Amino acid sequence: MRWRLPRRRSLAPLVRGPLAALFGVLTALPVGAHAGEPLALASPDSRLVVTFHPGGDGEWGDPSYEVHFGTRAVVVRSGLGLEFSDAEPLRGLGVIDTAWHSQRGEWRPVYGERALVADRFNELKVGLQEAGGSRRRIDFVFRAYDEGVAFCATLPRQPGWESVRIEREHTEFRFPADHEAWAVYSAQGNYRRVRLEEIKSGCERPLTIAAADDLYLAVGEARLVDHARMKLGPLSGIPHALVSELSSPVEAGLPLTTPWRVIMAAPSPGRLLENNDLFLNLNEPCAIAETSWIKPGKVIREVTLTTAGGKACVDFAVRRNLQYVEFDAGWYGPEGDDSSDATTVTVDPQRSPGPLDLPDVLRYARDRGIGVILYVNRRALERQLGEILPLYRSWGIAGVKYGFVNVGSQRWTTWLHDAVRQAAANRLMVDIHDEYRPTGYSRTYPNLMTQEGIAGDETRPKNDQTLTILFTRMLAGAADNTICYYDRRVDENASHAYQLAKAVCLYSPWQFLYWYDRPATSPARTGGAGGAQTGIGDEPELEFFDAVPTTWDETRALHGRIGEYAVIARRSGDEWFVGCLNSTVGRTLAIPFDFLPADRAYVAHVYSDDPSAATRTQVRIDRKAVNSTTVHQSVLGPQGGQAIHLVPAAAP
After folding, report:
1. pTM, whole model, 2 decimals?
2. 97 — phi, psi (to 5°)?
3. Is the peptide bond before 592 cis (omega within 30 degrees of 0)?
4. Cα separation of 207 and 475, whole Å?
5. What domains appear along the chain, each with residue ranges and CATH number?
6. CA pair distance 197, 200, nearest whole angstrom
7. Cis peptide bond upstream of 267, omega within 30
8. Which pLDDT tens digit goes with each residue over 146-168?
9. pLDDT of 305-358, one tens digit each?
10. How far is CA 89 from the centre of its chain?
């Protein structure tokens, strides 16, 4: 990284209003001057301020930072540092150059939760150098967005220092009080509401924190591409404080730039969710020149591994407006067997007796405009990736679901993102399953459609878990929740209207529906994990799944309390879809339809739980005229939900 030399310049454009009085007005430093002076950087709206302390006084001989939201401390002074196993620590650092930059831009994603993403920030780059000895250099970059602050470090290539092994990272997050937080220790684990003092080593990110009734925070990671994953753990000896924990050492030639460390701040959990494009903004722009082959859509899973089952799923997809059929584990042999060859169609006899004529199914699907996705376990991926991706492209496959991938260490992080790039080179889309959590790479490679890293329907989540996931895991990006509908777990943990609403609330450009269900014309499943499947019926409310898209032009969080309830509204073209989720206590939520155009009439198709409904799913459908002045009363029973489809009324 090469920085321009600084000019003397007032920080008044960056720190103004009451914050200027709080922090004072600072001046960009000329080379070698005032090496220990703090540098403050404000967000475009001036509400968020991150202050960087180069170090040099008392406990803070090393660099440190702090963050304020308005006049309130979000993160109190916290240390920054790297520990090397092949070099002495950086000591006696002083500022040698600074550079300021502002951006007020926007960009259009290939798909997303919004058709247009604002990218507005102020940026400070600071070069630090040791005062003596080898005079090594480290550079920090700070960005202040209205949605949060982010920072990263670069070790430039320099004489006598051409490679490095980072053993540990010491990025601290010291909070002013023992806030409540929602902690989980595996990507698909169960969240617990705890105090910061109770958080243990290995806490997942993003970590959502309630600092006050009107101040919610999230600590996360962005642009993790070829580095070790960060988790969080307690900072020894410091109350209500956390520190970064790398999942492995990091070895690289210089220059090396760390992933972004991110601190979001907003007045409500819903606003955090609305601001989740921050993680995308902290990644590089799209690297794929031609993206017309990247197509979101709804997916049904084929698990009988038979020709008849595949064609039944294709027919179902055509009839019910789904776009893809995915052949799940076992189509090329036992997924856990290293000898299984993913270049062949060799059905695992423990999962299905077959027969499966995959080329015949592919022709059948292609003739009907349905794409096919193939599941491949990491064992075959690691051995055969370079062979199978061009082969699958020649077969006409739309994408690959990567299963049971290794995650966390630098080695496997690098491998996985390279596997996404290799898929892009072969015009294949990707769904990464199991413990992988996104950090915004789908902006750079939008063929990365979705990923698991969520305690989805496979894990039988209670409603409070889903309503926690919505405001924690979903901050990081799309999640393949594997929505089921007829399986008995729906009656155990939720309701059918609740399941309909999940398709709106839980964003995924590839949305898997009917996870444990099969078309009525499909053969019965005879083996494999997950048990017997339930036949899909023809209940009237399935029209909602038929109509709901998977990507959006606009997203709003209308109500939200972590673990308790949520109302999410999303627009696609002229139509709006609203999902309402509730936990264990019945409630009525007022939903203003003021997001509708003021001069246009709409029809609301409302799908509600009703024990008196004469179907096995007990969903009632109401249709009523509404407009922008309507306030809809959403009555939600315990563990219940409601889905709403708002369609422009036909002209009289």
Report:
1. 0.94
2. -160, 155
3. no
4. 9
5. 18-281 (2.70.98.10), 297-458+478-484+509-547 (3.20.20.70), 459-477+485-508+552-652 (2.60.40.1180)
6. 8
7. no
8. 999 999 999 999 999 999 999 99
9. 999 999 999 999 999 999 999 999 999 999 999 999 999 999 999 999 999 999
10. 34
